Amino acid sequence: MARIQIPLDALTSRLNLGSRLEGVRSQSLSTRFANLRPISEFLNLSRLSKPAGFGEVQSRVNYNLGYFSSNYVAVAIMLLIYSLLTNLTLLFDIIFVGLGLFAIKKLDGRDLELGFARATTSQLYTGLFVIAVPLFIWANPIGSALWLVGATGVSILGHASFMDKPIDTAFSEEAV
């Protein structure tokens, strides 16, 4: 049986994902959200249309990923918050680990002395690990991460492929 090889580099090079991610990493948070488009422009129903073919889908996705990039980051952050609020066990475990590490760090290497017991920092880290890891596994973080990837991908790529370019942009591309 012959293996089917999918040329992933051809797909990713057409969408120009490498240079898009470089731009995201080099910007600060304030500059990232400075070009946030208004909600009326982002959800303009008069610009929604079915693309004619894959070439037009590719052109729309390339344009919209650059034009609405800050809006798409905001959508991804909102979906992340939603997934954490619907998986309270995972949210509790993240907060528990964060507060536990903070409290152990506040001891500055000293032992925790209670009236009836004494615990070293290594014992505290071990106790935190023994409680947090099973709770983390039970919280199903892989399911939440896969849901987040799927929901973000469908939302962003769906919007980018069905949102038509502005008319002035379409005419400027034909002239070139």
Protein model, in words:
This protein is mainly α and 176 residues long. Helix content is 72%, strand content 2%. It is built from ten helices and two strands. The protein has helices at 8-15, 17-26, 29-32, 39-42, 54-67, 69-86, 88-106, 121-138, 141-162, 167-175; strands at residues 112-113, 118-119. A two-stranded antiparallel ribbon has the order 1-2. Strand 1 (112-113) and strand 2 form a beta hairpin. Helix 5 packs across helix 9 (141-162) and helix 7 runs antiparallel to helix 8.
Summary, kept brief:
It is built from 10 helices and 2 strands. With 176 residues, the chain is mainly alpha-helical.
Task: Please render the helix and strand layout as text.
Blueprint: H1 8-15, H2 17-26, H3 29-32, H4 39-42, H5 54-67, H6 69-86, H7 88-106, E1 112-113, E2 118-119, H8 121-138, H9 141-162, H10 167-175
Antiparallel strand pairs: 1-2
Helix pairs in contact: 5-9, 6-9, 7-8
Number of alpha- plus pi-helical segments: 10
Low-confidence stretches: none
The N- and C-terminal alpha carbons lie at a distance of: 47 Å
Instruction: Report helical residue fraction.
Output: over 70%
Core attributes:
mainly alpha, 176 residues
